[in-house]
Recover the amino acids of this structure.
């Protein structure tokens, strides 16, 4: 600095450490006064939780979670509403806990939960039940009716895979049967009633259709239609793609098939075998 040049002169800055009388903030992590004891912290947390519970009406256990930063007030209120809905769905609607849980969380419509519950009551523990695999697991004989065969066949499933089964009829070599070729199955004791319920529609048969692997060509009634038809208890005509047909009431239904009540017996019908003409029954 040129002492002879006034322009170069600048007012003296504050002394190091800040102006007199001013204190700099303590460095991070430095303690300010004596630390609170554990009991003091607990008492402070308790007071905050009680005040929050009083102001908002939430249970004390929930207020503690908010004070500790484990959840927000909005999240807690939504959780409480789900719990209340969950209990009500079981006590008043009669839903099983798993179905009530899905409905209360918004992942399953209530009407569908009622449909699934109703199916469970009549013996369908799973909506995705596979009767072919059940027959294999239980070692029970089964009667099959498939496309390309005029009559039913009685035998046993000796192997079941995703898209086919190995079917053994006594006196013959095991036969590989693709599931999309099947129209119906039933217990051997119900076979006579199932045969009597089956007829043929010449107009549909004239289309020359058979089994189809293309899902776009298939027809499946909606769950709402099936549930309504079941509640009405009417016998419906179910048309197959090859023109054969069967009449029967819906006893239960699942994702891929439905159980028909036919006379004093019953049979399982596969949706993939249905002709779109079945739609007029609904």
């Amino acid at each position: 600095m040129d002492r002879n040049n006034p322009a170069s002169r600048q007012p003296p800055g504050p002394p190091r450490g800040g102006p007199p009388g001013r204190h700099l903030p303590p460095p991070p992590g430095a303690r300010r006064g004596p630390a609170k004891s554990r009991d003091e912290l607990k008492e402070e947390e308790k007071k905050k939780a009680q005040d929050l519970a009083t102001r908002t009406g939430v249970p004390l256990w929930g207020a503690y979670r908010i004070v500790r930063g484990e959840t927000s007030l909005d999240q807690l209120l939504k959780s409480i509403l789900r719990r209340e809905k969950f209990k009500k769905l079981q006590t008043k609607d009669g839903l099983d806990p798993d179905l009530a849980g899905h409905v209360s969380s918004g992942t399953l419509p209530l009407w569908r939960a009622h449909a699934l519950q109703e199916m469970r009551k009549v013996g369908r523990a799973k909506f995705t039940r596979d009767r072919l695999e059940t027959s294999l697991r239980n070692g029970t004989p089964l009667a099959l009716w498939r496309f390309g065969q005029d009559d039913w066949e009685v035998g046993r499933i000796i192997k079941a895979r995703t898209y086919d089964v190995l079917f053994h009829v006594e006196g013959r070599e095991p036969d590989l049967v693709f599931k999309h070729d099947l129209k119906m199955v039933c217990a051997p004791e119900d076979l006579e009633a199932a045969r009597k319920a089956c007829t043929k529609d010449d107009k549909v048969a004239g289309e020359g259709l058979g089994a189809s692997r293309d899902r776009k060509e298939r027809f499946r009634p909606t769950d709402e239609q099936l549930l309504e038809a079941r509640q009405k208890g009417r016998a419906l005509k179910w048309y197959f793609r090859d023109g054969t047909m069967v009449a029967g009431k819906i006893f239960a239904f699942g994702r891929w098939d439905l159980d028909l009540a036919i006379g004093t017996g019953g049979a399982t019908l596969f949706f993939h075998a249905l002709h779109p003409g079945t739609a007029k029954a609904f």
The longest helix spans residues 38-56.
